Amino acid sequence: MSVVAIPTRRHPGARPIRPRTGPTLTITLDLAPGPLSPRLARLVQLLGELAESGEGRLGTVQDAAPGPQPAPSAATGEPSADADQVRILAGSRTVRRGDRVVPLTRIEYELLLFLAERPRRVFTRLQLLSSVWGYEHAVARTVDVHVRRLRAKLDGTEVVTTVYGVGYRLADEARISVDHSR
């Protein structure tokens, strides 16, 4: 895990530098063992370049100020991160399947969150258009396309069930949790 703090930029010709507390951006990366993805490797490279230029500081978690650390999942009662568990972290608008982040579009995320917060209810395409998209003047089959893409991104995990002739609902066997605090 790495932490990067990037202070605000100083403007040339500005007043003399004096100690102050300014806005700080802290980026925490959970790095799994093994090789980095190309995008993550590029991000780490860019953060290193910022630190080398003097515009920021790059350090590990041990260098960071102590703060509340997440407890192991067994102690907090969180479900273990197995491959089929889908977790929606509403605070950061992130969806995780097991240990990996699932990249969803805004509509796919909103659709999944809407269904997860209302289990055992069937919604017609028009109800979903109204509630998730916020309008009703689109073609109702738009919902079908987004459900198909959502299913593809959550491959192997049955999350959305089709109720033929009616619409869609969250699957009974869906192993999904919504965490509004993260």
3D architecture notes:
With 182 residues, this protein is an alpha+beta fold. The protein is built from five helices and ten strands; from the N terminus they run ββαβαβββαβααβββ. Helix 3 (106-116) packs across helix 4 (125-133) and helix 3 (106-116) packs across helix 5 (141-153). The model is unreliable at 64-80 (pLDDT under 50).
Oligomer state equals single chain
- Unreliably modeled segments: 64-80
Class inferred from helices and paired strands: alpha+beta
What's the SSE pattern?
Answer: EEHEHEEEHEHHEEE
Estimate percent helicity: 25-40%
Shape: elongated
Q: Kindly provide the radius of gyration, computed on alpha-carbon positions and rounded to a whole number of angstroms.
A: 21 Å
What is the residue-mean pLDDT, rounded to a whole number?
75
Task: Supply the key terms.
182 residues; elongated; 5 helices; alpha+beta; four-stranded mixed beta sheet; single chain
A few lines on this structure:
This protein has helices spanning 38-52, 73-76, 106-116, 125-133, 141-153; strands spanning 2-7, 24-29, 57-60, 86-89, 94-97, 100-102, 123-124, 160-163, 167-170, 176-179. It is an alpha+beta fold.
Write the layout of secondary structure elements.
Elements: E1 2-7, E2 24-29, H1 38-52, E3 57-60, H2 73-76, E4 86-89, E5 94-97, E6 100-102, H3 106-116, E7 123-124, H4 125-133, H5 141-153, E8 160-163, E9 167-170, E10 176-179
Parallel strand pairs: 4-10
Antiparallel strand pairs: 1-2, 1-3, 4-5, 5-6, 7-9, 8-9
